[in-house]
Amino acid sequence: MNKETTIAIPADPNDPEDFDVSVAGLERAHIGRRFRILRHRLGLDQAQFSAAYGIPLANLRQYELARHMPPPAVRAYLTVIEAEPEMVRKVMAEAAVVPA
Fold this sequence. Notes:
5 helices; 100 residues; mainly alpha; 2 strands; two-stranded antiparallel sheet
């Protein structure tokens, strides 16, 4: 099964502006929604979330717009942030201070 070509939600034939949504597109949208919901729950805009958690701002924007699926490591990291946002933020802040 090719997730990009398999249709999850067919276009409404009565709506000329509607379009099919692929399984992959639906999955990307779900991940994007998780990022947005988490950001809003934490009271952060995209730039603040990016800075706090080390996810490049351009990437975060693409994930939230469902243009790109984050790689597996980023999806796992999202799960960790969802579970322990303050702990992750603290660790990331401490890591930024440590000289390389």
